[in-house]
Amino acid sequence: MTNSTHSLLDALGVHLPTAGDLTVRSPIDGGVLAQIPTASRGDMQAAIGRAHEAFKAWRVVPAPKRGELVRLFGEELRAHKAQLAQLVSIEAGKVTSEGLGEVQEMIDICEFAVGLSRQLHGLTIASERPGHRMMEQWLPLGVVGIISAFNFPVAVWAWNSALALVCGDACVWKPSEKTPLTALATQALFERALKAYRAAGHAAPDGLSELIIGRADVGEALVDDARVALVSATGSTRMGRAVGPRVAARFGRCLLELGGNNAIIVTPSADLELAVRGILFGAYGTAGQRCTTTRRVIAHESIHDALVERLDRARAQLPIGSPVEPGTLIGPLIDAQAFDAMQFALSAAREQGGQVSGGERALADRFPEAYYAVPALVRMPAQTEVVCHETFAPILYTLKYKTLDEAIALQNGVPQGLSSAIFTTDLREAEAFMSAAGSDCGIANVNIGTSGAEIGGAFGGEKETGGGRESGSDAWKAYMRRTTNTVNYSSELPLAQGVKFDI
Ligand code: UN1
């Protein structure tokens, strides 16, 4: 580990063990950052036990008081934003501005959650019976298990935990094995917030937010434990296919945030300048490793060639380099496996009639142990099998269309349903795209790209994306249980539906 990473971890309050079976590498140069021990199934079960006890105490703390803890955590994040962001760059390979953006997303959700802590409201419902009142309440749910992926190593956890904590739940976090250091740093910041909360005279139980670093068996222990009321899992569709049925088998709740295969439709009336910028960030930002990454462009035949040529020229000039160096826009892929998957997809695309530009390995001389790739653009003759598959890499497939109906059918013609966008200045096209017969995704944008959603909206998608919604809007309801209460304040006992049962 370099001295700078060491001092960064120190500043964030992380004291690493000196040995362990998990080797943590930086995708920047492939160098070893740390060796840390992994937990066992038993450790996970013990953590769930602590969280379950914590839940019992936390659920009766008034929600605005719970919000105060999340407010303090947001303050820690503000104070350590630059350091945590730098660690995100080192461990996940994000360019500086995106690392900062990730921590900003955590701060934003904390603020949203603090406001929400005074708004966890239910309805009052008209009763058909005289002297009766009906209402619904939202009550704390239980332990929330959070399984997060390497590409948003800390923000996605924050979306879940900030809401879960104000909702009165306790959390158990299993981060990606590729990014345990950012998880440890986040946990250390949370513990500082907890200390400040207690120092201000508030009571908070131990075990409110447990972090367990481990392999798949530890994730399975989380998924299978009946004390975990909600499993919120972010990752591949393959992972979701394994998690979903196991949680369902024990009647637990699942919030799945899985793969995307996001498209941008570009119509003849589009502002092409805007479209080019939106597509470049969507397709190649984060080196194509967002679930919201733009993977397909569906362009009208009248503008297709001009648009694709512009994209291809701009693509070839995107600065690839170490994510912590100024000016870099394209950082590394997470590891060799990701690079291999990219090459595999590109050769499949060639076999399926695609014309590939870019995609080669970059900077191999400077970083022989790391995997940088030239962003790829593939002109496809049709939406073939490889295009229907999510490859977590900077590959953009381009397709042509004649009618908007055809474009929407192509856009919807993949198994995933996370994000989508249209670039158009035609009101009819924009509205049709967002309508019931339009995009089938959880996110449908107009004149912006597919990625980079704000936390205020509900985030998630349909079909193989898993159907869950996280973050803003009323996504908080997934972290609570609803009770319907009917209160009789009369001295009669009328039955609903006019039923008589006179004794
Ligand atoms: C993810 O890639 O798992 O909309 C989440 C975005 C980010 C979140 C992406 N706010 O691209």
From TrEMBL:
Q: How does it assemble?
A: Homotetramer.
Which residue positions are annotated as catalytic? E257
Keywords in alphabetical order, please: NAD, Oxidoreductase
Location of the Aldehyde dehydrogenase domain: 22-483
Q: What is this protein called?
A: aldehyde dehydrogenase (NAD(+))
Which family, according to the similarity comment?
Belongs to the aldehyde dehydrogenase family.
Molecular function terms in GO for this entry? Answer: aldehyde dehydrogenase (NAD+) activity
The EC category is oxidoreductase
Keyword Oxidoreductase in the entry? The reply is yes
Q: Does the keyword Iron-sulfur apply?
A: no
Gene3D superfamilies given for it?
Aldehyde Dehydrogenase, Chain A, domain 1, Aldehyde Dehydrogenase, Chain A, domain 2
EC numbers, comma separated: 1.2.1.3
Q: Which Pfam families match?
A: Aldedh
